[in-house]
Specification:
Elements lengths: L34 H19 L2 E2 H8 L3 H13 L3 E7 L7 E6 L5 E7 L3 E7 L9 E4 L7 H16 L6 E8 L2 E3 L4 E3 L12 H9 L2 E6 H12 L7 E7 L3 E7 L2 E2 L29 H5 L1 H7 L8 H4 L7 H22 L3 E5 H18 L9 E4 L6 H19 L7
Parallel strand pairs: 4-7, 7-10, 11-14, 14-15
Antiparallel strand pairs: 1-3, 2-3, 4-5, 5-6, 8-9, 11-12, 12-13
Helix pairs in contact: 1-3, 2-3, 4-5, 6-12, 10-11
């Protein structure tokens, strides 16, 4: 069983035994080494253990934290006082009364992860425990769209599906099919965001909704999810090559997503096709013409106007179609290899998910192994909602940080 470390104590000089006070940035408003600082440190330890392990009794919390039982009881009392935890049940301990178990309250603050697609919006509630909640999908309005209309509707739908009061929502993380410059609050490449302003969308949303709003490119969010729990958890660097209705690239260098100076890194769909593509798709002018949803649907023999989602079923079993798709994918991936030289290429998005491992193997076979001898090509290892997974990551961290801010008042 893991332990969080020894019980913290201050010696006669006021120094802290075994704890580097300078590392406690969230508590920098409290003088390190004081009783208040020590109590806050212990309470944060307890809170994080309850998040990690779920409901615990006083005895279990004491064992995991390395604290004495009286200290564990005091930590629970203080966390209850600021309404961060509550009693959730009892655990039988054999002889004697049952022990009360305590869990983190998830009704204090929640967030909503949102993915804005071309004609639908996906959303899911996120809480401090990162518990699963239903993903809801709502169609976008045919006309008159606004950012606050899109987002408020998604938040309301997600809360209804989860049975969570909308009043608990304090944050929203939104994945968009566009580039976003966080410093300038500026969107670009906004083809799928009618009604959204290029300038000031985040400020407009925060003003209208009263929430903290995070906006991020959808493929960057999917890359974060891939790093956290997909096939790229341990690689030094990777690119997530996203194939869906549109194209995009998420670039992860050492665990950090590279966004570029204005958030436009990875907008590969606008890149002109290389000359080598003329024999494959003579009418293609840019990479979206080569590998975007309409182009892939046509390549698969679908009737004009067929949605990509309706054309993809059966792709994995069609070896000839997979080979044609791999030929096109390598043309788009080649510039990434030349400029970034990643350790891994991850194929993501609806088209790659349908092509599966067979597509990844065909792409790998077409890449020059002499120029890239250690390159690995894999299909994404995340679930059907990678953009929401990445947005959830952002929200869980921020929700927990906000809740922990209340701990300094618990002493």
């Amino acid at each position: 069983m893991s332990r969080a470390g020894p019980e913290v104590a201050a010696d006669a000089t006021g120094t802290v035994d075994g704890i580097d006070g300078g590392g406690a940035a969230p508590m920098n408003q409290i003088d390190p080494g004081t009783p208040t600082w020590l109590r806050a440190h212990n309470d944060r330890t307890a809170f994080r253990l309850l998040l990690e392990h779920g409901p615990l009794t006083r005895a279990q919390l004491g064992e995991l934290s390395g604290m004495s039982k009286p200290t564990a009881a005091q930590m629970i009392t203080r966390l209850e006082r600021v309404e961060l935890i509550h009693a959730v049940g009892e655990v039988s301990g054999g002889r004697g009364p049952n022990a009360v178990s305590y869990g983190v309250r998830t009704d204090r603050l929640t967030g909503v992860a949102i993915s804005v697609l071309a004609d639908t919006i996906e959303a899911v509630v996120v809480d401090a425990s990162d518990a699963p909640h239903p993903v809801v999908e709502t169609p976008t309005a045919a006309s008159g769209r606004t950012p606050e209309g899109d987002v408020s509707g998604a938040i309301a739908a997600a809360c209804r599906a989860a049975g969570v009061p909308v009043e608990t929502v304090g944050l929203a993380a939104i994945g968009v099919q566009a580039a976003f410059d966080a410093d300038g609050d500026e969107l670009s490449f906004t083809d799928t965001l009618p009604g959204w302003p290029q300038q000031g969308a985040r400020a407009r949303l925060e003003g209208a909704l009263g929430h903290t709003v995070l906006i991020e490119n959808d493929v960057n969010l999917a890359a974060m999810a891939e790093r956290a729990g997909g096939v790229a958890t341990d690689v030094a660097s990777f690119v997530l090559f996203w194939m869906g209705d549109g194209l995009g690239v998420g670039i992860d260098l050492g665990g950090t997503v590279h966004r570029g100076a204005t958030g436009g890194a990875g907008e590969i769909g606008y890149l002109e096709v290389a000359r080598g593509a003329e024999s494959i798709a003579p009418d293609a002018h840019d990479l979206t013409d080569l590998l975007g949803g309409p182009a892939v649907a046509r390549m698969l023999g679908a009737a004009p106007g067929t949605r990509l989602a309706d054309a993809l079923p059966g792709l994995a079993a069609d070896r000839a179609a997979l080979a044609r798709l791999a030929d096109r994918a390598v043309i788009a991936i080649a510039p990434l290899l030349a400029v970034i030289d990643p350790a891994m290429v991850v194929l993501g998005g609806p088209t790659a998910r349908e092509g599966g491992t067979a597509l990844a193997e065909l792409v790998a076979a077409r890449i020059d192994s002499g120029a890239h001898p250690r390159l690995v090509v894999r299909t994404s290892g995340t679930d059907d909602h990678p953009v929401l997974l990445g947005a959830r990551q952002l929200l869980v961290d921020r929700i927990r940080d906000r809740l922990e801010d209340a701990i300094t008042t618990a002493a």
